[in-house]
Amino acid sequence: MGEESNIRKWDELIPDALGLIFKNLSFVEVLTVVPRVCKSWGKTVAGPYCWQEIDLEEWSKNRNPEIIDRMLRLLISRSGGSPRKLTVSGITNDQSILLIANHAQSLHTLCLTRSSITDSITETISSKLSALSSLDLSYCNNLGAPALESIGKSCKSLTTLKRVMHPLEVISMHSQEDEARAIATTMPKLEHLEMAYMLVTTSSVLEILRNCKRLTLLDIRGCWNVDLDERVVKRFGGKLKVLGPDMVGCHEAGEWEWDDWSDESGGYLAWDFVAGDLDGDDDYYAEEVAAAFWEEEGDGADANSKLVNGKGIYF
């Protein structure tokens, strides 16, 4: 009996502890399965303990923008209005971007891949993103140098920037040299920079290396107009690792490793990206979410929460 009395029941754990445990579950499970276990778990999921890190990147791919916006509003509200990390894909309206920016006072990591974010909206919100240390704007085709310059001037603690482009989508572009120079002149604290398939040249990449002296990783795979050799890169420090068409990296010992696939241009061809977009993952998420969402009941539930036309989203 004594041993049994010392065993803590799962439904009696404090919300902070439950929140840490639930972080190991998928987004879908936390939102749909956990609340049905017991009231205390439902209250925890309805509060900020599970939503300091909001990961919607996979779920949001190819989803209706209105559905994404509603989900963002729900989860940002549950986070207490100040998430620390937010990842989402495919935002197409300024309202969603403004929503994120207006609740970014504690936001350190932001991922907006494949979103229709523009220079003008970025310049409007960048001052609200000053806490950011990591930003992913990969496959965002509607922004350019003005947006990156505004971010660099406002986000003084930025150490990671991902600006990867799709090889098929840059065909119609002329150059992204101005973007590279905006990075070089406004983001001196960068340690991790991914700019694969950007239309840049050796000159602008060297400018980045000269100004961003803390860089430890530079990804320039698919940047075919960039020509860096071992001798040039070694000048910028032994800890710098470069991923590019002709080389893999530089280790702390200062020894270069030339790998077997370097002659194959960074490991990917354009049609590899197309095939990867058709892997069916989004269909899996759509089916599971649509099947699993239900109206919340009991304490801690939003009185206005309900299933919307079978789409698996709440008002």
Please describe the topology of this protein.
Elements: H1 2-5, H2 15-22, H3 27-32, H4 39-46, E1 53-55, H5 57-60, H6 65-78, E2 85-87, H7 94-101, E3 109-111, H8 119-125, E4 134-136, H9 145-154, E5 160-162, H10 177-186, E6 192-194, H11 202-211, E7 217-219, H12 230-234, E8 241-243, E9 249-250, E10 256-257, H13 270-276, H14 281-292
Parallel strand pairs: 1-2, 2-3, 3-4, 4-5, 5-6, 6-7, 7-8
Antiparallel strand pairs: 9-10
Helix pairs in contact: 2-4, 6-7, 8-9, 9-10, 10-11
Q: Could you characterize what this model shows?
A:
The chain has helices at residues 2-5, 15-22, 27-32, 39-46, 57-60, 65-78, 94-101, 119-125, 145-154, 177-186, 202-211, 230-234, 270-276, 281-292, and strands spanning 53-55, 85-87, 109-111, 134-136, 160-162, 192-194, 217-219, 241-243, 249-250, 256-257. It is α/β, with parallel strands linked by helices and 315 residues long. It folds into three domains: 1-50 and 286-315, no CATH class; 52-154, Leucine-rich repeat, LRR (right-handed beta-alpha superhelix), CATH 3.80.10.10; 159-279, no CATH class. α10 (177-186) links the parallel β5 and β6 (192-194). α2 packs across α4 (39-46) and α10 (177-186) packs parallel to α11 (202-211). It is elongated and about 65 Å long. Mean pLDDT is 76; it is low at 247-312. InterPro entries: LRR_dom_sf. It comes from Striga hermonthica. This is F-box protein FBW2.
